[in-house]
Design a protein that fits this description.
It is a single chain. By secondary structure, the chain is an alpha/beta fold. It folds into two domains: 196 residues, Rossmann fold (3-Layer(aba) Sandwich); 262 residues, Ribokinase (UDP-N-acetylmuramoyl-L-alanine:D-glutamate ligase), CATH 3.40.1190.20. It contains 19 helices and 18 strands. The strands form three sheets. It has a nine-stranded mixed beta sheet with strand order 12-11-10-13-14-15-16-17-18, with helices on both faces. Strands 3-2-1-4-6-8-9 form a seven-stranded parallel beta sheet, with helices on both faces. Helix 13 links the parallel strand 14 and strand 15. Helix 3 runs parallel beside helix 4, helix 11 packs parallel to helix 12 and helix 16 packs across helix 17. It is elongated, with a radius of gyration of 26 Å.
Length: 479
Amino acid sequence: MIPPLEMRILDRNAQHYGISILDLMENAGRGVADVARRDFGAAGKRILVVCGTGNNGGDGLVAARHLSKDGRVEVLLARPPDQLGTEEARTNFSRLRDVRVLEGLAESEEAMARADMIIDALLGVGAEGPLREPYATLIREMNASGKPILSVDVPSGFGADPIVRPAVTVALHDAKEGMTPANSGRIQVVDIGIPAQVVRSTGPGEFLLYPLPKAESHKGQNGNVLIVSGGPFTGAPALVAMGALGVGADLVHIATPLIAWQVVASFSPSFIVHPLPGDRLLHAHVDGILALAAKADAMAIGPGLGAAEDTLAAVRDIVRGVSLPIAIDADAIRAVAADPSVLHGKRAVVTPHSREFALLTGKTLPEPPEARGEIVREAAKTFGATILLKGHVDIVSDGDRLKFNYTGNPGMTVGGTGDVLCGVTAGLLSKGVAPFDAARLAAFTNGYAGDLAFKAKSYGLTAVDVADRLGNVLAEFID
């Protein structure tokens, strides 16, 4: 089963990858017509197709066209044709021939009374709460008609009130999470032609996971990130912070050793920098960092910390002690590899490249991305964490789900782009996005920002160029 939100994400991604929504609608409507003939003996019968204004209604219009070849079909539109809400639905309305079209509630009960069966194409996934008119009345009339009902994709009103009670539901692509025989009748799944590669790929649809700030929200309510980074390396903390701010986090706090703090603070007045005594992260800093973490929404840890054994031990103590969602990168991966038990029960995203993955798991990855997928999935399951494997194709898994990300380019081998990705991941975690969802959205966003940077700078791009274009990605894909 697929959650309704994931189906909306998939629809948007299919369009991004060049799959024609009109073709998907044609396949869906033809599949509905085939089920109507096979399961209801629709040929020769009087069929009423009740259509809403969206693509679910468009699917119904296609089914009506196909069924009109050997049945007596009427279409009942919830609203006038000029209110059809998508180009694809309007196109399929224009393709209807020799089909009587009714509108609204004026003749709806009479139309249902003379039908032998009803096809419910009123509403698709996403309905919530009490339904507006005329939808609520049309659903009640369908239920009261006593006629067998075939619903398209989900029963209209699914997740809302009232809901259609069908004998059969034709689920498009896959059954939707929450569908049961009790609420959907017999469930028949129809393949509508979305390629498997699109199903497993990230895309702009992932931005449906992005939590939009409320109009009345104020500073700090849309993501507060604590970054534990730097010491031997001073650029990494700033790049992580740029990634978090670039994806919309409100605040970034950076805990970094005293040797680095002035350099880090000089990068931006937006950084709140907390100096840690000394030249590297130590066990003596752990309690102070955990106190800072108590005021944050998510943590990023690892970039630029260095590989000193006492630093790695401090990292493990921090990961073990923190209850926040956490992005683990770079030197923190080395620390976790020595004792993976620190990940137990954590909401963690680990972001290794292939060499760090080998250190973490003891496994050398094959080159083809498709061959890497199951290895990454198994590792994520073993560690109880989400893994975002960085590469020319990024791979994301939480041990169950698996996604491939194809954004990005060879120019992004420049130092620091992984630090930006760590910050993007932590920024999304701080906004309440679940680890697997944060990782797949971060991979797409960071890679797409890199592609925008490559268009402007070619192989001369820098990690700062990538971070600077994160806002452009949000502007392009957030509705």
